[in-house]
Amino acid sequence: MKARRGWISFSGAAAFVSAFLLAGCGGSSDSGLKNSNPGNNDLNVVVAFGDSLTKGSECACAPYPGRLSGLIGKIVYNTGVGGSQATDNVGRTQEAINKYHPAYLFILYGINDVIHSTNPGNVVAALGQMVQICKQNNVVPVLMTYPRPMLGHSLFAGPTLSLNRGIRDLARAEGIRCVDLEREFADGKDPLNPEWRLSDLSLLEPDGLHPNDAGTQVIALACADQF
Question: For the chain, what percent of residues have pLDDT higher than 70?
Fold first, then answer.
């Protein structure tokens, strides 16, 4: 566990977030993220892969990939596509690798599949295919879980948390890093479902799904802490 975050000050507001980070879902590591065999890939290039949470289209703020770039001193390409689903975008993994030749690829995908009633197991299978494509191309994949949906999206909390469990299991099985945003955004336990974590509403847009400026900074810092 690293203490990179500490207290974070956001411009124009007195918003503070306490340090809480695991180097990987279900485990920690003292060593930074490395690619010891990048092949033709650029060690200074990262791809952020996912949906609107990556694209940043729902917040009038800088998306997390641009913030991450400034934190780690690497080029971070934002390939997020709003509304896209993991099960329909496995092939886009290879396209992104061919175009940008990244040494690292951060994968935050699956919430739209859940919203469209896709079984979380099928989503995890698609994420597993993305991971394999990365490995076959000498790219180090990093999986990411989702914050628990709240407010208007709370209906999808159960299947999202099920997806998150599958993502953690996949990361462990593949021996890769995982940025656990469910834990990063956590604000205590749900009194109705003690095994579930509530998300901190101060980190979310009013829709209860997309991160606001503070939440976007939390994502960037959590990803930066992998390096």
Answer: 87
Q: Is the pLDDT of residue 126 over 50?
A: yes
This prediction has a pTM of 0.88
Specify the residue for token string 């914050």.
Answer: 147
CA dihedral angle for residue 72, residue 76, residue 81, residue 86, rounded to 10 degrees: -70
Q: Which domain holds residue 138?
A: 42-224
Q: Is residue 14 part of a domain?
A: no
Evaluate whether residue 21 is within a structural domain: no
Q: What would the two tokens of residue 168 be?
A: 């953690």
Can you tell me whether residue 186 is helix, strand or coil? strand
In whole angstroms, give the CA distance from residue 224 to residue 227.
6
Report the domain count for the chain: 1
CA–CA separation, 107 and 105 (whole Å): 6
Phi-psi region of 112 (alpha: psi -120 to 50; beta: other; left: phi over 0): alpha
In a domain, 35, yes or no: no
b/e sequence 94-133, b meaning 16+ C-beta within 10 Å: eebbeebbbbbbbbbbbbbbbbeebebeebbebbbebbeb
User: Six-digit token pair at 60?
Assistant: 């009038």
